[in-house]
Amino acid sequence: xxxxxxxxxxxxxxxxxxxxMIILSIISIILFRFNWGIDFTGGTILxxxxxxxxxxxxxxxxxxxxxxxxxxxQLSGNMSGExxxxxxxxxxxxxxxxxxxxxxxxxxxVGSGDVKRxxxxxxxxxxxxxxxxxxxxxxxxxxxxxxxxxxFEHRIAISAIVAICHDILMVLGVFAFFHLxxxxxxxxxxxxxxxxxxxxxxxxxxxxxxxxxTHRRTDSFATLANDSIHQTIRxxxxxLTTTLFCVAxxxxxxxxxxxxxxxxxxxxxxxxxxxxxxVASSIWVTWHEHLHSQRNEPHAVKVKxxxx
Length: 308
Known about the structure:
- The chain is of the alpha+beta class.
- The protein folds into two domains: about 10-35 and about 125-295, Multidrug efflux transporter AcrB transmembrane fold, CATH 1.20.1640; about 45-120, Alpha-Beta Plaits (2-Layer Sandwich).
- Helix content is about 65%, strand content about 15%.
- A hairpin with a 2-residue loop joins strand 3 and strand 4 (about 85-90).
- Helix 7 packs parallel to helix 9 (about 255-295) and helix 8 (about 220-255) runs antiparallel to helix 9.
C-alpha cells in the first residue's frame, strides 16, 4: 500500500500539519482551559435509598436531564446481582437547590425513595499528587532520553520525545476545546498513550539502527529512513488497527464512564502512529541533514560496522 510512498519527502507537509495542530491545541488550552473532574476539584455525594432495587443504568438515565450522566454511581445496601435499593452518586459540586433538583429527576425516572445524605467532599487528587505525577512524568522522560541515547543516539531520543509531546498535546487540545472532563482515568490513559507512542518510535528507530549497518555509503538519510519505515509500517498499521478495534469497542459500548478514557486512547494511538512514522523520523533526518550541511558534507549515511 505504501511501498513506494516517500514519507520523508513529504516532511514539510508533516511539519506544517503538526505545527498547526500544536498551535491550535495550545490556543484551545489557553482559551478554553480544562474541565477538571471531581477527582481534582472535589464534588457532591448523594446517597439515595429506593423502595425497590435499581440498576446503575436506571440511575444514570435519571441523571442525564441535568447533564450528570458521567457521574460515578455505586450500588450499596442490600444488593441482588447488579441491583440494589441503595445508591451512592458522586458528582461535581452542587448547590442545595441543584442537589434537590437532581434527586427529583432521579426519583421521577427510577421511582420513589429517600435521601440518606447529601454532602460536599474534597478532591481525591490534590495538588501534591498532581505535582508528584508531573514530576514522575518528567523523570520518565529523562529516563527514556537516557535509554534511547545509549541504545541509539541522542538525536533519536529527542526526536521520539518530541513525537510523544506532540501526541499528548493533541489529546489535551481536543479535551480543552470540547470541554471534556479530565479525571483520574484521564491520567491513566495519557500514560498509556505515552507508552504506545514510545513503542512505535522505538520500532522504527531500531530498524533505522539496523539498516545503518547494511545500507550503501551513498544512500541518503532520507532513503535510509524511508526504507526503514517501509519495512515496519505493516507491523505498525496492524498494531494500530488491533488496538483501535479494542478501544473503539470500549468507547461505543463501554458506557458513559469509560467514554473519555477510551477517547484519550483513540486520539493518542492514531496520533502516536502518525507521529512515529511521519514526524519523529522526519525530525531525525532533518537534524542529520542540517549537521552535514554545516560541515559541508554530503547527506549520505556513514555505514557502521556491525558489532560482533
